[in-house]
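FAQ

Q: What does a record look like?
A: Structure on top, sequence underneath. For example:
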């Protein structure tokens, strides 16, 4: 993403740990948003336009590192004037990996092809000479003069379509008559004449793909000024004889008010499309088809209205499709209104087209301003304040110049020594150390023989239990266990779990209020304050410290490890308040390999095998979407309808010549809504949970759906886990 200084920054997500890396500078500037694509080897490539009008790109390498930026130059006699569109997808026959958002697609051999509007208002393109390569063809211009940025898409047969608008708002499309090859990179006279498919367009368009039995149908979304957001779809897909296909322009449909920037479109696993944007009040909002595109309803049916996605205001939004446990979910990213802060919200499970079941979303997470360090925004596990919830004062050092300073609480913020990190250890119970970032030393007890038991910072010792801590969530009295998530926590001492990190409101001889101490966690003295907030102070007046991302993950990991280690003393139990009826996963996922019959005239009989594993996707306090093995097993003990066994299955699929063959699986899913009741060494706490699990075929009369499929285009559905 591009920061305020124009520098492009990146960060990566670890799905196994549900953590984000720190922002990292790519070392390159951009004028406008960067564009990403994937080489045939599945490594990411980033393209940018710089202020000079030259295009540059940077490649991910085999070891995960990144190359230096490479100069792609400019079209002859002009410069690049807009954001490029890159055809980029591994669309090889052995293992198709379609890009579900429909905006970026790939050549049949995996080469990248780039399209960009020049300062001369022509659309120019060039293509890699070989997959994964760094050598490119010369520039070639498509006829005509254009406004805005082009959009490129490719159907399953590998032919590229390009969409562009005239300065008067007319939207047109052209398409290849045949895919390019490594032997003939940019064939002459290979592009069909431009065809008009709309008028009044005021911005760049987005293209989605609808896979039907007759082929891949393209669907365009674009703003028409005050006339709002419109969509139009092909009534017949493109062919070699009719490259641009036939468009149902008479059926063009308005689906809402105009959205700032290019519409963001993504596909559900059942083929229904969802449009995301910013509504008139500035909030992130979305609208989903109630029925996917069909021959009689080419644009799909949009019976449901727009829904705001919580209370997050934004200037821009992006969406990706990603597997979340047993289902394919969406991750929505938004840049906050008037800020550079990146926010993320994930969908735990999809609703139904008829509205009988709503989408289930986790809460918005603050991923900090683009390009800022780990201490920015709400902070991170690597850098946060530890604030007394009762006193509003932060954990600090008595003397930041002393290597073994006493630890205090301080009303003054932004002082040296007030930033801390929560570091995981090898402790079998998951205890963490609390590390002072200034001194790189750990929070430790002072080895006092009698009370008061003060705390100091000391050299970190991975074997010393006195430096280890449990994090325990604390809910206010009267909270709803099924709805309320803790924002305050206790730090229990690993060496003495009955003692907690405590701040004092006033001096009480022999205790000095400024010094933090270890005091009995169950103290009822009004002077003792042992609940803390982990994060950085928000800038919103009247609000307190926001919890740093990852804190609840530590809580969950510690609970799972302690319950697994000593199930007699510790229990991790899910209390179900509601268990809706089972349902079938929307659309189905691709089980096993996708195969291609290269024979020109003979059917092929393929056997496709796969393992269907059990699993549960847990929500923990509406912010965590990870599956913990121990909690999965404990969860399974209480719900007899769960699919627990791993099943290996095989299906024979007859595949006609020059077609793809695969198997689609729609497992039975069931949700449970309630809360986790955790008891650790006699100490109890709760946190809300909303879980999605595989259910046995036949649960509530719903059976697993299994069907072989063939098509001349690869599947658009996600692969099963």
């Amino acid at each position: 993403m591009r920061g305020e200084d124009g520098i492009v920054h990146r960060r990566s997500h670890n799905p196994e740990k549900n953590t984000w890396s720190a922002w990292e500078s790519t070392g390159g500037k951009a004028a406008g948003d960067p564009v990403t694509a994937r080489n045939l080897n599945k490594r990411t490539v980033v393209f940018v336009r710089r202020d000079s009008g030259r295009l540059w790109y940077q490649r991910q390498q085999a070891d995960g590192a990144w190359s230096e930026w490479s100069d792609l130059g400019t079209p002859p006699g002009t410069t690049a004037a807009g954001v490029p569109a890159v055809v980029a997808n591994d669309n090889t026959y052995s293992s198709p990996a379609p890009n579900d958002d429909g905006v970026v697609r790939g050549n049949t051999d995996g080469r990248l092809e780039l399209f960009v509007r020049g300062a001369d208002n022509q659309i120019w393109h060039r293509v890699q000479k070989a997959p994964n390569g760094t050598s490119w063809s010369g520039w070639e211009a498509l006829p005509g003069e254009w406004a805005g940025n082009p959009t490129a898409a490719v159907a399953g047969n590998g032919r590229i379509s390009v969409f562009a608008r005239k300065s008067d708002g007319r939207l047109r499309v052209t398409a290849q008559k045949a895919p390019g090859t490594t032997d003939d990179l940019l064939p002459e006279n290979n592009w069909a004449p431009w065809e008009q498919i709309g008028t009044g367009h005021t911005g760049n368009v987005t293209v989605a793909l609808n896979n039907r039995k007759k082929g891949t149908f393209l669907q365009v979304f674009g703003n028409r000024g005050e006339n709002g957001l419109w969509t139009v779809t092909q009534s017949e897909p493109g062919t070699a004889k009719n490259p641009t296909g036939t468009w149902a322009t008479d059926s063009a449909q308005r689906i809402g008010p105009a959205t700032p920037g290019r519409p963001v479109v993504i596909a559900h696993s059942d083929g229904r499309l969802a449009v995301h944007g910013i509504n008139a009040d500035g909030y992130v909002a979305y609208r989903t088809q109630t029925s996917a595109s069909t021959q009689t309803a080419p644009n799909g049916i949009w019976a449901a209205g727009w829904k705001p996605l919580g209370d997050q205001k934004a200037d821009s939004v992006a969406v990706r499709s990603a597997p979340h446990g047993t289902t394919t979910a969406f991750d929505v990213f938004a840049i906050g209104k008037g800020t550079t802060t990146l926010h993320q919200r994930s969908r735990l499970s999809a609703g139904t087209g008829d509205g009988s079941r709503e989408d289930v979303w986790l809460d918005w997470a603050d991923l900090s301003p683009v390009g800022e360090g780990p201490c920015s925004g709400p902070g991170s596990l690597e850098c946060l304040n530890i604030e007394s919830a009762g006193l509003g004062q932060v954990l600090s050092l008595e003397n930041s110049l002393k290597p073994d300073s006493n630890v205090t609480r301080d009303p003054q913020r932004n002082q040296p020594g007030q930033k801390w990190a929560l570091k995981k250890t090898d402790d079998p119970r998951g205890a963490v150390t609390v590390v002072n970032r200034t001194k790189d030393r750990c929070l430790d007890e002072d080895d006092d023989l009698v009370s008061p038991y003060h705390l100091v910072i000391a050299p970190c010792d991975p074997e010393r239990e006195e430096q280890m801590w449990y994090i325990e969530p604390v809910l206010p009295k009267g909270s709803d266990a099924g709805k309320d998530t803790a924002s305050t926590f206790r730090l229990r001492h690993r060496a003495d779990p009955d003692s907690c990190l405590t701040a004092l409101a006033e001096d009480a001889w022999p205790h000095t209020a400024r010094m933090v101490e270890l005091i009995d966690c169950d103290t009822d003295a009004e002077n003792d304050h042992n609940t803390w907030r982990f994060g950085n102070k928000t800038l919103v007046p009247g609000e307190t410290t926001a919890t740093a991302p990852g804190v609840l993950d530590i809580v969950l990991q510690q609970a799972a490890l302690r319950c697994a280690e000593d199930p007699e003393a510790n229990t991790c139990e899910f209390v179900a308040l509601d268990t809706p009826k089972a349902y079938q996963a929307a659309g189905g996922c691709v089980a096993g390999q996708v195969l291609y019959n290269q024979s020109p005239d003979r059917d092929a009989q393929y056997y496709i095998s796969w393992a269907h594993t059990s699993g549960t996707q847990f929500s923990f306090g509406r912010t965590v979407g990870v599956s913990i093995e121990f909690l999965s097993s404990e969860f399974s003990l209480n719900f007899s309808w769960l699919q627990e066994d791993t099943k290996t299955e095989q299906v024979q699929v007859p595949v006609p010549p020059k077609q793809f063959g695969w198997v689609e699986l729609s497992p039975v899913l069931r949700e449970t809504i309630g809360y986790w009741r955790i008891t650790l060494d006699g100490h109890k706490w709760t946190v809300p949970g909303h879980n999605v699990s595989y259910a046995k075929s036949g649960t509530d009369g719903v059976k697993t759906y299994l069907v072989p499929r063939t098509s001349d285009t690869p599947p658009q559905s996600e692969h099963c886990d």
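Q: Is there anything notable about this one?
A: The two ends are 29 Å apart (CA to CA).
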